Structure formats: C-alpha cells, structure tokens
Amino acid sequence: MIVAAIGPGTGMIVVMALIVLALVVYLLLVIVELKRITDGLDRAIAGVGEIIQKSAPVNEVVEDINGNLDAGVDLLEGLLVKKAGLIDSVGLVEGLYPGAGAAGLRNFPQSTEIEAPRIAEVYTKGTLTLARLGREAPIAMANPAGPVLRNVESGSLAARQLYSSVRHQNPEKLPRSPVIGTDSPVSYEQRDDIGQPRKRLPARPATP
Amino acid sequence: MTLWWIADALLLVVVLPVVVYLLHGVLRAARAITLSVNRIVGAAAAGSKDLDATALLLTTRDQVAQTVAVVANYGGSLDIIVDDAEEAGS
C-alpha cells in the first residue's frame, strides 16, 4: 500500500538517492585512503632524499680508494716481477694462493700464458727472494691445505739455511785439524817390538 | 506506470549493486596502496639508516692513501736493497 501510494516517480528518486549515498560514502573512504597514501609518500620521499644525500659522495670516495689500491697493486706487482722475474712471480703467487697463478698478474698480460713453477715445493730464486725479504709467507708448503712447514719464529734462520754455508758454521764446532810434524801429539801407544828381532818359538820335540 | 516500476526495480536490483561493487573495488585498491606505501616508507628509512656508515668512507680513503704511501716507501727501499732478477741471473 505504501509503495503504491508513493508512486513510481518517488521510488525512482529514492533509488537514485541510495545510489548517491553509496557514492558519497565510498568516495569519502577513498579520499581518506588517498590522504594516507599522500602522507606515506611524503615520508618515503624524505627517506629517499636522505639516501640520495648520504650516497652522493660515495662514488668519488670509492673511486679514490680504488685508484690508490690500483697504484699499490701496480707497485707491488712491478716490484715482484722486477726482483723475482715474471716466471717466478707467477710461481710465487700460485704457491701462496693456489689457483691464483692462472689469473696472472694484472699488469703483465703475458703472465697468464706462463705455466707456474711449483715454488711451493721446489725452492727457486723467487722463493729465495721472498725468504730474503723476511716475509712470514707460507712458502715450502707440502700441501696447500696442510700446515706451514716453515718455522715463522725462526724465519731468518730458515732463510739463511737456503744458502750455501760460506762461513762453515754447520755444524758449529768442527773437529780440530790433526797436527803433524815434530810437535805432533802421540795419538796411539807405540809398540815395543817394532824394529826388534823376531821372537823365536821354542823348538818342537822330535817325534820318534 | 508499469515501466516506471520496472525501471525502479532495475535501478535497485542491478545498478545499485554494480555501483557499490565498483566503489568497493576502488576502496580496496586504495587500501592496498596504503599498505605498499607503508612498506616503502620502512624500506627507505632502513636504507637511509644503513647509509649512516658512508661517512666512514672518508676515513677509509685517508687510511688507504697512507697505507699505499707506506707500501710505496717500503717498496722503494726494497728496490734498493734487493737485487733485480736480471742482475742476479747475470
């Protein structure tokens, strides 16, 4: 009865009013969410700005550090090759860092073609140079995974033992040289029968 | 008259639910964006905090320069002390 009383036009208006009400409610909720999004983006932009500000000098500083390190590597590689030779240098690198010899030296491209000598097992001029430098390097390793055979506490002694003993210090006390001549000591007891007539044995009795 | 009532019924049964459904979808998407933005804010703050140590790179740069200078001096001394490979081999 009530519906019939208000008529179809009024019903249309009521339905349209419901639609508009739904639109208003949801749009208000969307507006609130968009406001939250805007606030969040503002905070995010502030954080990103801090990141940009803090990371701005990184490139310059890192490039400077890399430049210094490159200079150090060039210096050490050049010194090593100059003092030990290219082949022994590759062998030294391989001995100290197994597998690194294949990569070669950075400033010496031809070093990648060198078959690294097994300096870790056989002493060569490069090892001697390294030992002479007094480095606490794990040279003379029997196995790269094993313990270091070189006594690092007596590194200088180990280095000296690599050379021939010019001063004849090993063993420390050699036996004295024999003294010959008129004043030579009597080293053994002199026998009395030397130079004397030979002793005659008693005659054997005659057999019947 | 009947057509008016049919139109009212269509508006009430079809159009209004469709409008509500679409608006609800928009609201759901907006709320999802809010969650994503909150995560971005957390990540940006954490990234900014992680970069606090970049100031120490200046100290690292100075120390690297000093170390390389010491190595250069040491290498120069070794260059004088130790014979060259060619000289030793000759």
Short description:
The complex is a heterodimer of chains A (208) and B (90). Chain A is mostly helical and 208 residues long.
Can you walk through the features of this model?
The complex is a heterodimer of chains A (208) and B (90). With 208 residues, chain A is mostly helical. Helices cover 51% and strands 0% of the residues of chain A. Chain A has helices at residues 2-55, 58-84, 86-96, 125-133, 155-160. Chain A is rod-shaped. The termini of chain A are far apart. The model of chain A is unreliable at 138-146 (pLDDT under 50). Chain B has three helices and no strands. The model of chain B has no long low-confidence stretch (mean pLDDT 87). At the A-B interface, helix 1, helix 2 and helix 4 of A face helix 1, helix 2 and helix 3 of B.
SSE sequence of chain A, one letter per element = HHHHH
Oligomer: heterodimer
The count of DSSP E runs of length 2 or more, i.e. the number of strands of chain A, is 0
Share of helix of chain A, binned: 40-55%
- The count of helical stretches of chain B stands at 3
Helical element count of chain A? 5
User: What percentage of residues of chain B falls in helices of 4 or more residues?
Assistant: over 70%
Q: Largest interface here, residues on each chain?
A: A-B, 53 and 52 residues
Name the shape of chain B in a single word.
Answer: rod-shaped
The run of helices and strands of chain B is HHH
Mean pLDDT of chain B: 87
Q: Provide the structure class of chain B.
A: mainly alpha
Distance N to C terminus of chain A:
185 Å
Describe the biggest sheet of chain A?
none
Biggest sheet of chain B, open or closed, and with what strands and sense?
none
Structural class of chain A: mainly alpha
Intertermini distance of chain B = 121 Å
The total of beta strands of chain B comes to 0
What's the Cα radius of gyration of chain B?
A: 38 Å
Unreliable stretches of chain B, pLDDT < 50, 5 or more residues? none
Task: Please indicate the percent range of residues of chain B in DSSP E strands (runs of 2 or more).
Answer: under 5%
